[in-house]
Every structure is written in structure tokens, then in C-alpha cells.
Amino acid sequence: MADLSSAAETRASRRRWLLLAPALFILVFAAAGPLLITLLYSFLTPGDYGGVEWQASWQAWFNVVMERDIFDDTLGWSDAHLSIFWRSVKLSLMTTVLCLFFGFPTAYFIATRPKKQRDLWMLLIIIPFWTNLLIRTFAVVELIRAEGTVNTLLIWLGIIDTPIQMLFTEFSILLGMVYVYLPLMVLPLYASMERLDFSLVEAGYDLYATRLKVLRRVILPLVKPGVIAGSILVFVPSLGAYVTPRVMGGGNQLMIGNLIELQFGQGRNWPLGAALSITLLAIVMVALMAYVRAAGNQEPHRV
Amino acid sequence: MSKAFNVSRQNGFTTIAITCFVLLYLPIILLVVYSFNSGTSVAIWEGFSWRWYQSAWQNDQVQEATVRSLIIALWASAISTTCAVLAALATTRTRKFKGQAAVFAMINQPLMVPEIVTAVALLIFFAMIKVATGYTGLAYLIVAHSAFCIPFAYLPIRARLQGMDLSLEQAAADLYATPFKVFRRITLPQLWPGILAGAMLAFVISLDDVVITEFVKSAGQDTLPTYMLGQLRRVVTPEVNAISTVLFGISVTFVIAFTVLGKIKN
User: Fold this and answer.
1) In B, residues 106-135, which contact A (CB 8 Å cutoff)?
2) ipTM
3) Do A147 and B43 contact (CB within 8 A), yes or no?
4) Tens digits of residue pLDDT in B15-33
5) Residue B259: closest CA among chain A residues belongs to which residue?
């Protein structure tokens, strides 16, 4: 009997891996495998016209944050790179905070609608989420560019004489990122608020808590997993954003994603581009692991 | 007291929420409205016309890019959905198996790795293959799209499988049906809403992709989104609005169809 069941087990296991084979093959070939090659490339020497020379070097990793002065050959921090890193982190954090500021009340508003209406309100959040990111970015560009809707309206009203330069600034990148990533904040927030037990909120009021106190001491702790999930979902793509800063920043205000692209275009430094990519990947992985730990710690306290 | 005390109310939340919905839709609505403008401005309304739709329709580059986008999206959706169905059959309704965590990590990997990193990695890897084989066709884009579409196709199919009743399949197996026959006659008919939903999700994700396509494409292989990205550098005419409106219409149609499919009960 034991032999029979173990033989069946082996057969089931073999069938499972056969069924998984096509998916795993494509994912290794066109997603995970190339990442390993990228890691390898970051330790090679750049070729003269792009590509690499097969010669080991630490130079690319060194160049991520440091540079050698072209005149006196002294070592120093790479100000250009550091300012781009700083801008990426700063804008991503601001995007996350603003998305939370707008997304939290929105998710709360939807979760407190009558049950039949909720799906319809959520559809209004899901439609932009599914719409091409480029189209949504472009829609904001039309609004704020020099001859765009906002400036034309303000001039027509006589408030300003010359258009305000809003496009190609850090402000426009921030605006664009908040606009395109807002649905990513609302979705997990709504999921956790929908299950919110309002009898606990009521109990808070019975004990003479103010609205603000109920929000801070009852609602916020209960929906904390949604807040964390939403923040991660917004922060991670913001940090790796490429399209929005390219369209909104117009080449003046680079973020990490644009700096990486530059190394494969005009920069012709593939190893540096590879090293920057791995750095970005590492930061994102750390953020995701922090999230998994935070979500894991949440569980035991659940009622 | 004129109004009953409402426990779920929070001061200012409704105002912010309504502002949010208005701001979310205002740019899109303006984009759609001005695609019908007869003038070249996106701020001054000069009358209704189909002019920009006609000029986009007659633009050779737009035509080619549209056809290319559709070919890639159809292939990527077919390949990723097939892989996802097989993978979902292997990973649901089974006890914990060795390597399960690794398999899930692998399937969800495209959702976790930033798109720009995958794009660069594929640029490097495919450049090596291009040099070695000399082939520069559409297959690179199709394979790349298939890979990042797999998790999107996998999720609805897996959700559907998990919600399915096992008793019918067991009954068929008791009546000496072969595993393949059980799949074709019992599992597949119940699974199709999930498969269709997964295939649609994959199709839209592939159709909308910008970053990975931009890095993987060879010269002259623009898709609709990368063509639009290139146009944004030049003087923008409402022609881009017209293309955007059509793509937006496709997305809305698919979201609604996807929502309806999710509501079909076993």
C-alpha cells in the first residue's frame, strides 16, 4: 500500500512540474534569467559604442555614487547621481503621502456608501487604473502646458498675462505621479475598509470620543494593513517611474529610471546602467520585504 | 437636533472624495472632448469635427503601429493565458508541495520587479541573441510581453479554479473518465469565464505597455504607445487625442466586460 501511494505521489508531482514547465520556461527566459545577465554586465567594462568588453571591472559600481574628477583626478561623490537619487526618493515619498491624503477619504467615502452603490463607485476607480498610463499622463500634460487648458482659462479670466510654466518642473512630475498612481492607493484601502466593523466606531462614540479621536484611535489601527499595502503599491512604481518623469520632466528633471535609460542611449555605459538597475531592484526588494514583515506582524493581533 | 448622528461620517472626507473623482476624470474628459475639436488647440473649442480621427486613420505610421500592437497583444495574450491555465491547474487544489514558494515568486516576479529594470535586462539579453542569430523580428516583443502578462492571466484563472466544486470532477473520474476527458468535459466548461477574463486582462496589459516595448523593439517596430511617446516630443496635435480616445474606449469596454465576467456564478 505504501508503495502504491508513493508511486501515485511521484506521478502527481511529475504531472505538476510538466504543467508548470511552459510558464516557468517563459518567465526564466524573458524575466528572471535576463536579470542575472544584467548583474553580470554590471561587473564588465563599457564598450566604445555601447555594449560591453568582456573584462571584469568594479568601475560601474564605483560610478553609481562616486566619480573621479576629470581635471585633477581626485575622488568625490557624484553630485549628479546623488541629486537624481535624492529627487527620486523625495518625489516618491511625496507621491505616497499625497496619494494617502486623497486616497484615504476617497476609499472611506466608497466604503460607507450603501452596498449596491459601492461597486459602481469602485468601477470609477478601476477604469483609470486600467487605462494606459501614457494616456493618463498625456491628459495631465494637456491640462498644464503653456497653451493648455489651465493657462488658457487663467489668461481668459484676466488673472495672468503670460502662461505659468508648470510643465517640465518637479511639481509637474509630482502631479503626474499622484494622478496616475492614486488608484493603486484606493484599491487596497477600500479592501480593508469594506470589512470595517462600524459597531467598534459606534462604541468609540458611546465612550465620548470626538470624530478625530475615533478616526485616529479606532479606524486607523483597524485599516493599517490597507494603508501599508497602498503605500508600498504607490511607492515602489514611483521610485522606478520612467514614463511620467520623461513626459512631465522633459529631460531636465531626471529620476532613477531616466538615468538608467541614459546609460543605454547617449551615455553608452551599459555596465553603469546595469549597476543602477540592480541598485533600484535592491531598494525595491528591501521595501517589499519590509512590507511582508509588517503585514506578518499584523496577523497575531487580529481578532 | 435636525439630523440624526451618523457614526460613519468624518468631517471633510466627502469633500475630498468628490474632489478626487472630479480631478481623476477632468483630464480624461477634456482629452476626449478636444479629440473632436475642429481646430488645432486643446484649450479653445472651435467646433465639432471628425478631422483628427480621419487624419490618424490615414496616417501610415499609425496604421502600421496599430496592426503591430494588435498582433503582439493577440499572441502575448494567447501564449500567456495557455501557460497560466496549465500553471493554475498545477498550483491550485493541491497540498503544499516542494518548491511552491519559489514557483509563486517566479510567477509574480513581473509584478514586483520595476518595469525599467526588466526592460533594461531584456535589452541586454536580446541584444546578445540578436548578435548571435541575426534575427530581429517581432518574436522578441511577443516573448517579452508573454512573460509579463502571465501573472495577470494567472490570477483570475486561479481564483476561478479555487472557487470550483470538486464533486463533479470526482464523479466523472468515478465513471472511468480519463484525466484529459475530465479536464475537457468538466473543468474547462466551468473555467471559461476565468480564462476569458485572464486573456482579456493580458490583452489590455500588452496593448498598453510602453516601457518594456520601448527598450526591446528594433528600429521601425513602434507599437501604438511607443509611437505616441515619440510624438509627445514634437508639436502635439489633437491627433494624439484621437488615438488616446480610441485606446481609452477599448480599456473601458474591457473593464466592464471583465467586471461582468467576474459576476458569472458557477
Assistant:
1) 106-107, 109-110, 112-125, 127-128
2) 0.89
3) yes
4) 999 999 999 999 999 999 9
5) A123
